[in-house]
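Following up on my earlier thread - several people asked me to post the actual chain instead of describing it. Fair enough. Here it is, all 444 residues.
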Amino acid sequence: MKSDFYTAISQIAAERGIPKEAIIDVMEKALVTAYRRTLGNNPPPMEVTVKLDSQTGSARVYAEKQVVDEVFDERFEVELDAARLSKPDAELGETVMVESTPNDFGRIAAQTAKQVVLQGIKEVERLYVYGEYMDREGELITATVQRIAKGNVILEMGKAEAILPPKEQVDADRYYHGQRLKVYLVEIRKEDRGPRLIASRTHKNLITRLFEMEVPEIYNGSVEIKSIAREPGLRTKAAVAARQEGIDPVGSCVGMRGIRIQNIVNELNGEKIDVVQWSSDPKEFIANALSPASVVEVHLNEDDHGALVIVPDKQLSLAIGKEGQNVRLAAKLTGWRIDIKSAAALLEEERAAAEARGFAEAEAMATEAELANARVESRKVRADGTVVYQNQHYGPLGDDLVGEAVQLRATSQKLYIYYNDRLIASYMLVEAVSDETSGIEDDE
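Reply from S.P.:
Thanks for posting it. Predicted structure:
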């Protein structure tokens, strides 16, 4: 083993960002494997260690051998005098660790350990990549597109590779080799072939991280993002609130002449972003969330967590948005189910409802007047639970009333049946038929 070999190891460590000690450890284990191969097939169980000199890079092998009077196989035996150089109290028959470096071990190591060393270095590299990124889950990472394979975009992130799966890609984005873009590190999986880094361009937390990067007030905590609703590649709504008095949260996020928000829009390839003021008052928050539309009034229904929002007639399409996008995102942002009506539509509904109520009230008054003037007739409830009026059966009224007398009052439309001065049933009148054809007689 020459010192230039050790220099090469130092260079590998520097290039890959791996501690030199870790590579040396891998080398020593690989050289143990190489030495064991020199022992032939099926050697007896024995301990073997290899030490690399940190200054010269030379390797020394120490192997466990049995102390004997006469050596027949130098690979596994050592004379007593030689053994006592390593262990002064060595005795015949015991095993001792003695230096056993073959004369041509440098050549053997170079030939036989190459693949093992390379594989070992790769494994160490994987471990250090995992260690570097394991605490960065949930961070914003700047990556470079390396290639596209089977729909996956492979990203280069320093010493590591990340995967942008199809479900984490924005449909409107176009990816090409060498493209630099910011991604959200969703997950880090430790697999047999090394760490697997999963990145995303669709995650709503990507928006949060971009705001933290562009808006100092969000990064230092004086402005807080309360909620985000996003349709990747199309539009995002973010609700923000100030945590310190005197700070305009929306203005802080938009920036002078909109420069801050424009930087984020550019990074997202033109995705529209609405920044709205968060409020603890649901009515105010819902009105803000429907920006840029103006809101006249908000009515809440706590039972089904719904909100009816009234907007000016000319603002209706703006409030709903293209294909319902604006109201859909506002509902996600606030957590309320939102129905939108124009002021004119609401007035028309209220007018129709008032007319219906007026008609119902007039009908009720007419019915009361007819009942007041109606003749009261008495009937016995028949065995089948019905009563007969104008040759028609009405009922059944229930078995408990069979044989009992009930009172009848009729209007032009309905028959009302009373028992002990209490209304028990009402029926729409059936057109009467003649006694000759029906064969039914009224019971008096």
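The domain at 280-366 is CATH 3.30.300.20 (GMP Synthetase; Chain A, domain 3). That should answer part of your original question.
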